[in-house]
User: What shape does this take?
Amino acid sequence: MNPAIVCIGDSCVDHYEALGQKFPGGNPVNFAVYLRRLGVASSFVGAVGSDADGAMVLHALEEKGVDVSHVQILEGATPTTTVVMEHGNRVFTSYETGIMESYQLRPKDLEFIGKHAMAVSDLWGKCEDRLGEIRALGIPVAFDCADLPDDPAAQRAIPNTDIAFFSNDEASCETVMEKMKEIFAKGPSIVVAMRGPKGSMAYDGERFYSEPAFDCPVVDTLGAGDSFIAGFLDATLRKLSIQERMYAGSACSAVTIGYVGAW
Assistant: This one.
């Protein structure tokens, strides 16, 4: 299976204190696993710590069939996110950066990335300043700004991004549309807003698209946005329309929110 999408950046462990359980996580890690669930070949380029949590993340990725040949094992702790549940929604209460403080892409990582059909990273992936180099390899780049599209890292990433994602389920539709136009003006060819139970919106410079969220049971919203992105990117590789990509994202997300943990 030839590599299709490379997911670059941070890994972490999601620690559910009330349950006494830990799950592998981190946006790029989640992207890679959800893509494999969809039958897409994926690679994770990033880092884990030299601790037991790092070993758990690597083992879980290998079990899912994700290529981890370019994962760095750095001396120190794997990043940890503490998660609590409030009315079925996950709330992050703390984040310990761990080894991601010192993570950097290596030349051999860039060479490997260039063998893929598409690259995707996120706000905490420590490669927002490398996206221009990645784009120069001739592959499209997607970037998840999370709910912080005005963050300095996101602002540096957006001009070298082909598909920009961000999350906002609180602002009015009109406010979100204005933000989408603002982001689009900085370089991406498609901007996608993920709005939780309100569905999603997309903008391609000519028109806005909207897609409702699936009506389905919600057990845990952790990974909902990441799985939407995976579904959207899979559909992009398959050259589907923007509307079909949004539907594919919603369908993938609906699976993820039906169980506890990202995957």
Summary: Residues 86 and 200 are 22 Å apart (CA to CA). The chain has a mean pLDDT of 91.
